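Predict the 3D structure for this chain.
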Amino acid sequence: MFRWREREPGVGPSFGVDWAITDRLGGTSVGPYSSLNLGAHVGDDPHAVARNRSRVAAEFALQREDLRFMRQVHGCDVALVGPSRSDPPPEADVMVTDDPDVALLVMVADCTPVLLLDRTEGLVAAVHAGRVGLTSGVVDAAVAALRERGAANLEAVVGPSVCPRCYEVPASLRDAAAAASPAAYSVSRTGTPAIDVAAGVVDQLQTAGVAVTWLPGCTREDETLFSHRRDGLSGRFAGVVRLLPPEDAA
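Done. Predicted structure below.
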């Protein structure tokens, strides 16, 4: 179920966090969505998706209704999330909350999932950072939204995404990505122009003064992860983050 997960209770005045990157294992979906597909927009059986989401929610000691999603559109809009559920989900590529009773999810199948945390202020965010988001400034938008709310000591987890070996693009797109972050400039396994979106995202975060944990892996090469670029019709895995209040300290 989880490619990576850490749960750190709050200590003293500091908030804790429960955050994870899911994989495609341990769910109920079948066919190209097998098995832990969390995307309700990709053609999968809605009942299977609901069961999958319930399984993830239970791991975070939450109900399925406590999971917060966004309608990701490769933009830079930020949605502020509270206890009330938005139906339909907000159209955004960044969600921010200070509510420990919900978990934020960013869904991906090649794009880069980013989870952000400030333990002092008690703020978390989930960010959808694909090629377009990298070049249009979604990382800066997320960091700015958190800092406007008092965040000063941000840390991030950057999850697996398609690697540059597998992400061949026209030279003009590589140039645009490199203009946003020189670290994004790359070549494919055949020597053609390519983009390293995750490296660009990490570079932008570090330039903004954010401490980064970058999890390795390529979605196209790793069949335990969903990949639209590899499979076409595909499910979605997710980055998940839940704030833990200080009173949860051990």
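The mean pLDDT is 97.
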